[in-house]
Design a protein that fits this description.
Radius of gyration: 20 Å
Structural class: mainly beta
Strand order of the largest sheet: 1-24-23-22
Number of helices: 1
CATH class: Mainly Beta
Number of strands: 24
CATH architecture: 5 Propeller
Mean pLDDT: 89
Shape: globular
Number of domains: 1
Oligomer: single chain
Order of helices and strands: HEEEEEEEEEEEEEEEEEEEEEEEE
Largest sheet: 4 strands, antiparallel
Distance between the termini: 43 Å
Length: 332
């Protein structure tokens, strides 16, 4: 009886794994957390030591958690409360590994503003870690939004233009922040890209989630069309540059809040064109996705990508959760 029970359990796991991955899909995902709710919106980065860090919202407004993996995303520490944000109301942000090895974590603080819609608005704060994400420095704040903009929010990794020169794609403005002086100035041609990802390719080209491409540090931009559908509600979408020169976008397919599935769309020519014909699904549960998923993809090593996302459907095995998926680069 015990043997039969074990076989049945293994069969159920195999069936479930097949449903959530494409037919030729990546390795099964790992559950990082359960019982999540509200603005879960995970962030991820890989440190210079190879540690994978993920930060996500466990409970709306009040509880950011951090978890870490030292074996390229195969196993994870128990999520712990992220100290610097435990005394403020928060909206999740982003993680970036800087060139000197420091880790930059940006989040967003809700605060009362009687002139804002709903009586509250947001601004971005950040903290730095110099010890692989174990401890974090005193938080610093970016400028609060100026009327008539109701919110100033960060959701995507910053672009490090030079040491202490950080490009922030914020909801209300796109700026270069001087980390030494705290000075903010408009980026490139001064346009506001809004809350979409901006990445720098291996060749130094800048790609904006608006479907724009710049080879002169943002002074001028060319339109790329067709472009992955990440320029609407850009805060929930994903765009990253791999070391091999490929650009990888996360694109949702289907109606509703979370769609029915997510897929990778790749550019192999420095963002000039995108290969939609061979796009690969990376999450397809066979039902509408619970929540917006908000995937974030990072490069784990020369051969593997890692993607963190969430699904709050309580009917799935284990209930709502945050998940991590490893994808071989050769699959793309």
């Amino acid at each position: 009886m015990k043997s039969a029970t074990c076989c049945l359990a293994l069969m159920l796991v195999a069936i479930f794994s097949a449903r959530v991955s494409a037919a030729d899909g990546p390795s099964p995902f790992v559950r990082l957390a359960s019982g999540v709710s509200g603005h879960v919106h995970p962030a991820a980065c890989v440190t210079k030591k190879g540690t994978v860090l993920v930060i996500f919202g466990q409970q709306e407004y009040i509880d950011l958690r951090i978890t870490r993996s030292t074996d390229v995303g195969k196993s994870w520490s128990e999520p712990a409360k992220y100290g610097p944000t435990q005394k403020v109301n928060i909206y999740p942000g982003s993680l970036t590994t800087l060139a000197d090895g420091r880790i930059l974590h940006v989040w967003n603080v809700w605060y009362a503003d009687k002139e804002a819609k709903g009586g509250k608005t947001r601004f971005a704060q950040f903290s730095l870690s110099e010890d692989d994400g174990v401890t974090w420095g005193e938080p610093k704040s970016l400028a609060k939004p100026k009327a008539p903009e109701p919110h100033s929010v960060n959701r995507h990794p910053i672009v490090e233009l030079a040491r202490d020169q950080w490009l922030f794609p914020l909801m209300d403005r796109t700026i270069v922040y001087d980390a030494k002086t705290g000075e903010e100035k408009p980026f490139g041609d001064g346009r506001n890209h809004g809350l979409v990802p901006i990445v720098k390719t291996a060749k130094g080209t800048l790609i904006s989630g608006l479907g724009l491409r710049s080879t002169d540090s943002g002074k001028t931009w060319d339109t790329v069309s067709p472009f992955p559908k990440i320029n609407t509600d850009g805060w929930r979408y994903d765009l990253m540059a791999a070391d091999n020169g490929c650009l990888v976008a996360g694109e949702v397919i289907g109606p509703g809040v979370g769609g029915d599935k997510w897929r990778f769309v790749v550019s192999r020519d420095d963002g000039k064109t995108w290969d939609f014909e061979t796009a690969k699904d990376f999450y397809n549960p066979g039902r509408p996705i619970g929540g917006r998923a908000c995937p974030k993809t990072v490069q784990l090593d020369q051969e593997t990508l890692g993607t963190v996302f969430y699904d709050v459907d309580e009917k799935q095995t284990g209930g709502s959760g945050v998940f991590f998926l490893r994808t071989p680069l050769k699959r793309l």
